[in-house]
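Changelog note: in this version the structure field was regenerated for every chain. One regenerated record is shown below for reference.
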Amino acid sequence: MDAKCTPAPELPWMRWKPGERVVVRYRDEDGVRDALGYLTEVGIHSVTVDTKRGLVKVPAEKMIIGKRVPPPPMPPLPRT
């Protein structure tokens, strides 16, 4: 197979949709971090996650792993 015809590797996050809840582990200058929240933007070069601390844009080259996660648990009902 000609090197020019080699398909690009699949980017797993390209299957994610804005509005889905995800966690993305990524590297930054201080080490490794997790962005947990709802996707606002998905692109080839990055994803943006709306976290409790605000929007986090994670460049593709810094992503380690990520996945869809279920909604947060409901808060407990008050005791009567």
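Spot check on this record: The chain has a mean pLDDT of 90. The first strand starts at residue 21 and ends at 28.
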